[in-house]
Specification:
Strand order of the largest sheet of chain A: 8-9-10-12-11
CATH class of chain B: Alpha Beta
Shape of chain B: globular
Strand content of chain A: 25-35%
Largest sheet of chain A: 5 strands, mixed, barrel
CATH superfamily of the largest domain in chain A: K Homology domain, type 1
Strand order of the largest sheet of chain B: 1-2-3-5-4
Largest sheet of chain B: 5 strands, mixed
Shape of chain A: flat
Oligomer: heterodimer
Number of helices of chain A: 4
Order of helices and strands of chain A: EEEEEEEEEEEEEEHHEEHH
Helix content of chain B: 25-40%
Radius of gyration of chain B: 18 Å
Number of strands of chain A: 16
Number of strands of chain B: 10
CATH topology of chain B: Ribosomal Protein S5, domain 2
CATH topology of the largest domain in chain A: Ribosomal Protein S8, Chain: A, domain 1
Structural class of chain A: alpha+beta
CATH architecture of chain B: 2-Layer Sandwich
Mean pLDDT of chain B: 92
CATH architecture of the largest domain in chain A: 2-Layer Sandwich
């Protein structure tokens, strides 16, 4: 079991469910105060940590936050910026000034075109959900080798495991370089056989019928991890 | 409301033509996550009504003129499939579907925390595959489940149900004959935990006493349907052992 499911009083809640607060806890993400009590606003598991009661949503859209490592692909270009799909409600901008290249105005296609993938970091998110990304930083780059898989932003913690235990094991067994981004996309580099191994494991989450980490998905994932 | 007061809709034993008591719902079932392409989805069967709802987003609102700087826009489309009734329905939007889409969007806005997603849009597609009577109630109730399945933050669920009057008797959940030949229809949308009313429409005439009785039936039905909503969501997300 990883840290997501190690909290006390874990239970599945539905939007509108009242949550008892006997211990003077404070409300965390997914919980609102309504008429003096706590109310769940999303479907998910209720967890408690350091006096904060919060909700691990079972299925939610990725909301970018400043500092997040994300994998995106170019959807369109202007003369001085690229627009990226990072899996959130809004497209992210990558201005040429935040790219690692010395790009000239209007010559952006020399480096990246529509459809190209890149490893980015979210630089800034404004109050209107406008997202600005950067490619200046250690490890940030255009992705030109390997494959990108999708596991869902809710599943990344389970995929990584406690202190990276699951991820380490997958890396060792597959021999692949694996980069897990916070928007639920993973970048795999390695042999065909190794990539197939990782894909078999990530399929527990990427299968479109079960994109959320429900107990069955986690059970099957853990079973596969034991078998590695 | 057809207004044919002389059509016998209640039998001598006090039961309705389909054998239900006056305060009894038609059979209701909900299945969650039926459309893999959608972010959240559900299929609801309510008597002979079948509604499928898909939720997409939050996503950037297009065209940009519909964006709101402080909140998300709910883009609800209610549509009856051409084969949903015995008389073929002309495909596409009509006056009725526009009205129900608007009513549904306004009802859902009372539960969805739209201020969390400024400038964005949440798309709710309600498709009625089979219609008997009470399709708007079926669609709204199913939409609340699909929104929860999609992980959209909401302050409560929403249940919609209708009571009405047939042969001068107040009854719950009108079927097709009762809807066509009855005297009144009172569909409501209620937040099951806080009991707040999200929408209320009335077709026909009800006395204050009949209105109170219809609301009493509706409130009782809301609790029953809310339990079915919870069970459907739990069975999906707890891996079957709810």
């Amino acid at each position: 079991m990883n840290e997501v499911y190690s909290g006390a009083q874990e239970r599945l809640v539905i939007p509108g469910d009242r949550i008892e607060n006997k211990g003077g806890l404070s409300a965390g993400s997914g919980i609102i105060k309504l008429n003096g009590g706590f109310v769940a606003t999303q479907l998910g598991h209720l967890l408690e940590n350091n006096g904060v009661i919060y909700l691990q949503a079972s299925n939610s859209t990725y909301i970018p936050r400043s500092g997040d490592l994300v994998i995106g692909f170019v959807t369109s270009m202007r003369s001085n910026l690229w627009m990226f799909n990072i899996g959130g409600p809004f497209e992210a901008l990558l201005p040429m000034s935040l790219s690692p290249w010395n790009t000239q105005f209007g010559d952006l296609e020399e480096h990246m075109i529509v459809g190209d993938y890149a490893l980015l970091r979210v630089q800034e998110v404004d109050s209107q959900h406008g997202v600005v990304c950067t490619m200046k930083g250690i490890g940030l780059r255009k992705i030109s080798t390997g494959v990108v898989e999708f596991i869902g932003s809710n599943s990344t913690k389970i995929f990584i495991g406690v202190e990276g235990s699951n991820l380490q094991k997958i890396k060792e067994k597959s021999g692949c370089r694996i980069t897990v981004a916070e928007n639920g996309r993973i970048w795999l580099e390695g042999s065909e056989e190794g990539i197939s191994t990782v894909r078999r494991i990530s399929a527990h989450f990427s299968n479109s019928n079960t994109p959320y980490p429900n107990p069955n998905t986690i059970k099957n994932f853990n079973k596969d991890m034991e078998g590695l | 409301m057809g207004g044919y007061g002389d059509v016998e809709l209640i039998k001598k034993d006090g039961k309705r033509l389909d054998g239900r008591n006056v305060d009894e719902l038609r059979p209701v079932s909900i299945e969650v996550g039926v459309l893999p392409a959608a972010r959240g989805s559900c299929r609801m069967t309510w008597g002979l009504n079948i509604a499928e709802v898909a939720v997409y987003g939050p996503m950037e609102a297009h065209p940009r003129k519909i964006q709101r700087p402080d909140r998300a826009v709910l883009d609800v489309r209610y549509n009856m499939a051409p084969f949903s009734t015995s008389d073929r329905i002309r495909p596409g939007f009509n006056r009725r579907s526009r009205e129900i889409s608007k009513v549904t969007a306004e009802a859902l806005e009372s539960i969805v925390m739209v201020d969390m997603f400024p400038r964005s849009k949440i798309r709710v597609e309600i498709e009625i595959l089979c219609a008997e009577a009470g399709t708007r109630c079926c669609g709204i109730t199913a939409a609340a489940v699909a929104l929860a399945d999609a992980g959209i933050p909401m302050k409560d669920m929403l249940v919609s149900v209708a009571a009405g009057k047939i042969n001068d008797v107040v009854v719950l959940d009108l079927d097709k004959a009762e809807d066509n030949y009855g005297q009144a229809d009172l569909p409501v949308g209620i937040l099951p935990n806080s009991k707040e009313i999200a929408f209320l429409q009335m077709d026909g005439d009800l006395s204050p006493e009949e209105f109170d009785l219809a609301m009493k039936y509706n409130m009782k039905a809301v609790d029953e349907i809310h339990k079915i909503q919870i069970e459907a969501l739990r069975s999906k997300y707890s891996g079957g052992d709810s």
